[in-house]
Amino acid sequence: MSDFQVGGQAVIEGVMIRSETHVATAVRRADKTILVKTRPYVPLSKRVKVFSWPILRGFVALFEMMGIGISSLNFSAETAGQDIDLQNGKEITETKSNTLLLILSVVFALGVGVAFFFFLPLWITSLFGVQKDALLFNLVAGGIRVTMFITYVWILTLFKDFRRIFEYHGAEHKTIWAYEKKEEVTVENASKYTTLHPRCGTSFILIVALFAILIFAIADTIYQLNAGHPPQLLVRFGVHFALLPLVSGGSYELLKLSGRTRDNRITKFMIKPGLWLQLITTKEPSAEQLEVAVVAVRASLSLPQNVEVRELADA
């Protein structure tokens, strides 16, 4: 198996998989057929040497995967929208996404995410009057941040549409397990594996939250030693925000390490919280959902399909 680790994400009624050479998104149409869109992919770290450096490669990969993920979600949403129109008797035409609207939506979503999951925990913690103790402050803020995230994800499971996405998330993991175990990627082989995976993005978010506690506590301590007082709320927010590339890059390295050493006893203990969180974000998929994930994995690896699919060339 290549040193490059196959990864992906669930989308609306489908799965996106990224291999070393291609990105493939497979979705189940309303008529039960499978549509797969594949395009060549070369990571930026392979094209620009400096972006392959540890820490930096994680920060770059985060934005790369964000872009790929948004594009795949947009494709699946457009496909789902066409199916709804078809069911309502409307004429279906190929449409191109509004790039500007998509960019504005992403910027707005990121802004809301930063305000809710990043600034709000700092503000709530500041109300407790623990600013002088850098470690305690960041432990409390980190605990609030993790609690908010887990609560948010749990609420999503209450909605049927999101639950189906979590089922496709489980299908993604099971097929990746089959590939990593060097088995032929089929529904039968994938079905025997767990929906939990140590390299999951859910685990990454948890690692970021925990790693941030350490980095932010060190940063706050350095600031306090130099300024003679703890940072004010907005200053603390600015410093922490500026350190996000280091936090995300370092967390990426830890996630990759956990994937390579997952059989190690210490690693197994360390990755437990991330796997527990996946009990919420992944659900057992049906055979039909596994079939879609298998198509995505095989398309990303340029393997022949073992079921009939409709292939869509990347525009």
Characterize the structure shown.
This protein is an alpha+beta fold and 315 residues long. It has one domain (7-313). It is 63% helix and 9% strand. The protein is built from twelve helices and five strands. It has helices at residues 44-47, 56-87, 99-126, 134-157, 160-180, 187-190, 201-227, 233-242, 244-260, 265-270, 272-281, 287-300, and strands at residues 7-11, 14-18, 22-28, 34-40, 310-313. A five-stranded mixed beta sheet has the order 1-2-3-4-5, sandwiched between helices. It is globular, with a radius of gyration of 21 Å. It starts with 6 loop residues before the first strand and ends with a strand. The mean pLDDT is 89.
